[in-house]
Amino acid sequence: MKTSLDPNTWAVPSPVWVVGTYDKDNKPNVMTAAWGGICNSRPPSIYVSHREATYSHGNIMDRKAYTVSIPGDEYIKEADYIGIASGKDTNKLEDTGLTAVKSDLVDAPYVEEFPLILECRVVKVDKLGLHTMFVGEIVGIKADSKALTDGRPDLQKIKPILFSSGDRGYHSVGSRLADAFTQRNPLK
Amino acid sequence: MKTSLDPNTWAVPSPVWVVGTYDKDNKPNVMTAAWGGICNSRPPSIYVSHREATYSHGNIMDRKAYTVSIPGDEYIKEADYIGIASGKDTNKLEDTGLTAVKSDLVDAPYVEEFPLILECRVVKVDKLGLHTMFVGEIVGIKADSKALTDGRPDLQKIKPILFSSGDRGYHSVGSRLADAFTQRNPLK
């Protein structure tokens, strides 16, 4: 027997991604997004959603590009601050001591200290309501070599942060449970 | 100094969500999706992406509804099987011993054994490439009482599975690290 709850954004887990953009004066800005994910395999694409009131929203509309820098969980305070402060009021890179690097592939900066970066060209903009969804084709990936196993990103080495809207908390990743795509036979 | 990698779906983390639909004969079907996430806060909305070749794709196009049932990590084998087999060939609920329950809010079934359910009405369909993105407004949530703290879903009680495309693995959640929205001051 299940309890019925009113509609809310209570799916789990959500990522903690730091979205990098340039403003009209070429000042780099960063914004933490928990509304993001992979949405297409070919071409490989992700999305992030921002409220129209945010500085990042305007930057992405102007430049049609963004990066996603994925912090390891040692950067939880930086990620939380970046999600609260606005680039309209302050320089969040200076405030956190993080380093913006210009992508060589898209018109946006990424965070040098974070282990995995996705460089995206905006291919679709959808105003869904409070949030606008920006679908970005991944045109390049940058990674720290210590985040890779056999040349591929390894979640256990990246240790990304998880967000849960229902409990308004950040959570860590645990252990590797199993290889995917192995249970080829019915269980019953 | 970072290594450049070719474009791929190597963001982390991805969810492991089981999407419930009805086919044209009212047979319930389930399909595991790792391409999914929250995309809008008002109205609260999620998306899942499916390849056009999948049985679920046709079901959602016909019924304009789906549910997302979020398994705890004790159901990792069931979730993996449901992501491999096709409802065109078999009844995946019978094959896993899981129970389909008709939603009272949308024209789709959910999985009774899983702790958190999102009931969605399709509001947007976008063919992005190999995958089609189905944006769904969350019109209701069903949860086991043991998955809730103060009436809200608690990630530590749900223990959802994480998927990582880069290492093709499933991972568990770890511990709760911090409350979100607390770091209101610059760190430097």
Task: Explain what the structure shows.
2 copies of one chain form a homodimer. Chain A is mainly beta and 188 residues long. Helices cover 14% and strands 45% of the residues of chain A. Chain A contains 4 helices and 15 strands. Chain A has helices at 55-63, 76-84, 92-96, 155-158; strands spanning 3-5, 14-15, 17-22, 28-33, 36-40, 45-51, 65-70, 100-102, 109-111, 116-127, 131-143, 148-149, 152-153, 162-164, 169-179. Chain A has a 7-stranded antiparallel sheet with strand order 4-3-7-10-11-6-5. In chain A, a hairpin with a 2-residue loop joins strand 12 (148-149) and strand 13. The longest helix of chain A is centred in the N-terminal third of the chain and has 9 residues, at 55-63. The first copy, chain A, is globular. The mean pLDDT of chain A is 98. Chains A and B meet through strand 1, strand 2, strand 5, strand 6 and helix 2 of A and strand 1, strand 2, strand 5, strand 6 and helix 2 of B. Strand 11 (131-143) of chain A pairs antiparallel with strand 1 (3-5) of chain B, so a sheet runs across the interface.
